[in-house]
Structures are given as structure tokens and as C-alpha cells.
């Protein structure tokens, strides 16, 4: 782990994994709180690393200190829940040492009912002897290849301290220094601009990324979704749909894209077109073991709730009721779904 001023979360993280790992290595990049004192409850392998605005440098240093056959990496606001700890323990008992990497789900978004709303896969447990390296000074990634196993274990991300300006400040410092941006840097700087609502600048960088005809297809799909959302926000539905259709060039249609198209038509009160796309979302099969980003709502309850709206507007209250009931299976306490239930009860449906 690499850490800095993580006193709010580090004990929770280390407590969750203390019985499933054989050593804990902490690299501190300049804490001014009691992070290191907390870590000492779990390990004496604590190292200092001078922060140089380069996450990969710090992570590669941390990997260099590992002495066991495999390395599990985590952030301070990550935890393993009890079910995932059990799965990890089972995996260890019959572990295949020919594996170079084990991927795990990374659950990073949650709704008010603690349902997962955003998840993706990451290479989490890697063979030390392969000397895999981290790449990128921000939004770093671990370059992994070889024999990879996709496990059913999940890492749960429970962020407490959000540092909204840290990454974009690093990027803009690098720009001023004249540092060459790789295609991946162009993408992630675009993401930072987007998150900071600097949309026009973000789209300029996103366009560079898409026009390169290089890069990972999952990143291209996500970029198209982001640009679509921007055009939806400024009431340009036709422009928004162009980018979802473009995303279909990079992979099979996804429920996320179909829901966006459906929403664009719903906003225009083009109900039959909206219905077509929401029903299409429900028919799709979610890709298995993909490393891409997935919004669980689009694959479960959201199309049903939107179809409820569409059919109700068309006067087909029985179908509207059916889809509201289907949505309630995923979110039984959702206030909108409960409101709809009462609405249909008053109609004696």
C-alpha cells in the first residue's frame, strides 16, 4: 500500500485483510497525521518515500519491498467484506501457482441502499517474480500479462477523504513543465477536466483520444458516454445520440448506452422510440469478466422504471404497473417506486 494522511480509513482497511495476507508493506509518502502509528499495530514494514507527483514511482517502490510469492495491492479506503474474505481464504487453499495475476471486482459506487452502482475489474493479486510495473504518474495502471484468472472476489471502495483537485493539479503542473502526455494521459486529463465541469476542454481532449484510433475499447465507450451526458445536459439529444451510436463501433451495445438513448427520446416525448431502447437494454447480456466500467442500474432496475413512465404516459397502465413491480425487486424501498405503487393502487391495478 502507498498511503498519506489516511488515519480515517487505514485501520478499517488493515483490519479487514490482516488474517489473509502474510505480510503488510506500507509506503508512506509524507503523512502528517498518525497514519504510521496506526499501521504499526499491523506491521513493522513501514517505509518512507519522498513524494514526487508520481503514483507509479511510489507503487513500484512498494512492490520492490515485497518478499512473498504474490502481491496484493490496496488503497487505504478499500476493504474486503466478510464474504470476500471467505472467498479469498478458499482461493488460497487451492491456489494455482501458475497464475501470473488474479483479477477482482472493484466496487466503487453505491446507492442510498448500499446497492452497487459502479464496478469494474482490476488485476489485484500478481506474481512477484514477474516484476510487473506500474505506469503513469496519475491514474496509474499495473501492466500485467500472462496467465490471468478472473475471480469472484470483490474489493469494496469506501472513500472518506476526497481530494478533488489533487490529480488535475498534478496534470497541469506536468503540462507547464512540458511533460509529454501519452494517449492515456490525454484520456485521464480529459476525465479530470470533465469531473471539474470544464466540459469544452474535456471534449477537446476526448476528441484527441478518439481520433487517435488507438487505446482501449472500454475507455472509448466510457468517453462516448461522458460526451453523450454533456450533450443531454445542454438539451442537444441528437448530438448526444451520435456518441452512443459511435460507442457501438468499439464493442457490442451496452445497457448504459441504450438507457442514454432511451432517455434522450423520453425527453423529447418520443415514447415509442424510448420504449424500444429501454426494452433493448433489458434484453442485453452483461459481458462477463470484462475490465470495463458498468453501471449496475442500467442492467437491472432503471430500464424497468423508465418503461413504467413511458407506458403510463401512453395510457397502458397494466404494463406500467408490471415494470414498476419489476424495478421494485431490485429497489424495494425506493421512494419513486413506492410512490408509483400507491399511484397504481389508487387506480385499482
TrEMBL record:
InterPro entries: Glyco_trans_2-like, Nucleotide-diphossugar_trans, TPR-like_helical_dom_sf. Coiled coil: none annotated. Gene3D superfamilies: Spore Coat Polysaccharide Biosynthesis Protein SpsA, Chain A, Tetratricopeptide repeat domain. Transmembrane segments: none annotated. Residues 1-116 form the Glycosyltransferase 2-like domain. This is Glycosyltransferase family 2 protein. It comes from Clostridium aromativorans. The lineage of its organism: Bacteria, Bacillati, Bacillota, Clostridia, Eubacteriales.
Amino acid at each position: 500500500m502507498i498511503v498519506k494522511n489516511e488515519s480515517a480509513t487505514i485501520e478499517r482497511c488493515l483490519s479487514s485483510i490482516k488474517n489473509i495476507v502474510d505480510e503488510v508493506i506500507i509506503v508512506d509518502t509524507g503523512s502528517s497525521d498518525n497514519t504510521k502509528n496506526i499501521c504499526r499495530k499491523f506491521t513493522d514494514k513501514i517505509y518512507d518515500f519522498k513524494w514526487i507527483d508520481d503514483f507509479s514511482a511510489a507503487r513500484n517502490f512498494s512492490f520492490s519491498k515485497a518478499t512473498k510469492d504474490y502481491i496484493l495491492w490496496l488503497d487505504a479506503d478499500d476493504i474486503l467484506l466478510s464474504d470476500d474474505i471467505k472467498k479469498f481464504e478458499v482461493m488460497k487453499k487451492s491456489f494455482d501457482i501458475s497464475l501470473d495475476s488474479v483479477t477482482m471486482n472493484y466496487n466503487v459506487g453505491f446507492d442510498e441502499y448500499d446497492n452497487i452502482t459502479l464496478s469494474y475489474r482490476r488485476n489485484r493479486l500478481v506474481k512477484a517474480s514477474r516484476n510487473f510495473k506500474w505506469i503513469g504518474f496519475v491514474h496509474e495502471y499495473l501492466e500485467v500479462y500472462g496467465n490471468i484468472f478472473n475471480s469472484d472476489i470483490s474489493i469494496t471502495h469506501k472513500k472518506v477523504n476526497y481530494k478533488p483537485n489533487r490529480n488535475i493539479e498534478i496534470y497541469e503542473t506536468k503540462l507547464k513543465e512540458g511533460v509529454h502526455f501519452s494517449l492515456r494521459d490525454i484520456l485521464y486529463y480529459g476525465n479530470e477536466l470533465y469531473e471539474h465541469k470544464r466540459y469544452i476542454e474535456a471534449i477537446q481532449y476526448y476528441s484527441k483520444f478518439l481520433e487517435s484510433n488507438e487505446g482501449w475499447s472500454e475507455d472509448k465507450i466510457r468517453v462516448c458516454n461522458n460526451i453523450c451526458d454533456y450533450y443531454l445536459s445542454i438539451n442537444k439529444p441528437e448530438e448526444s445520440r451520435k456518441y452512443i451510436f459511435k460507442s457501438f463501433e468499439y464493442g457490442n451495445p451496452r445497457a448504459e448506452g441504450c438507457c442514454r438513448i432511451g432517455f434522450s427520446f423520453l425527453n423529447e416525448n418520443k415514447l415509442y422510440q424510448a420504449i424500444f431502447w429501454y426494452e433493448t437494454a433489458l434484453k442485453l447480456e452483461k459481458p462477463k469478466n470484462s475490465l470495463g466500467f458498468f453501471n449496475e442500474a442500467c442492467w437491472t432496475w432503471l430500464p424497468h422504471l423508465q418503461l413504467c413512465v413511458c407506458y403510463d404516459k401512453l395510457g397502458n397502465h397494466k404494463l406500467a404497473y408490471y415494470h414498476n413491480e419489476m424495478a421494485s425487486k431490485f429497489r424495494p424501498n425506493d421512494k419513486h417506486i413506492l410512490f408509483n405503487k400507491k399511484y397504481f393502487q389508487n387506480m385499482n391495478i
